[in-house]
Amino acid sequence: MSEQATPNDKPMPALTGLHGQFYAWCRDRELRFQRCTRCGRHRHVPREICAHCSSMEWEWSRSSGRGTVFTWTEVVRALHPAFGAATPYAPVVVEMEEGVRLLSRVVDCPPDALQIGMPVEVDFQQISDGLTLPVFRRAAVAP
Questions:
Q1: Cα–Cα distances in angstroms (integers) from residue 137 to residues 20, 51, 55, 84, 120, in the given order
Q2: Which one, of 86, 94, 141, 143, lies nearest residue 122 by Cα?
Q3: Which of 72, 79, 113, 129 is buried deepest, with most CB atoms within 10 A?
């Protein structure tokens, strides 16, 4: 898949509990979401209880890795010093085929080329030995 570890001084997610499990799958280059084994709905961010049916029964389900850009914003002035050199950048919300939405970025697309509904596919960026983040690339368009 994608890039090797890159130096990083940005705030990082906690790698404990259910979040740690989510990022462990990413480290293995698999995008997985929790799926309620009672009602079948996927959920993200990870949590113990299903917001739809209140079940505490769930499993990690492998994602297709495909989605579309739901929305984005362009950041031109960093609100944290560690992001200063990265501006402008565009955090995107990707709506996955499984119905969940994931905050990430499209790494092969400048902010002014993003479009709502643009098809994307997951890739992974290794930040350190312990952390790999899911990122997205524009999906190949079928002829």
A1: 24, 30, 34, 23, 5
A2: 94
A3: 72
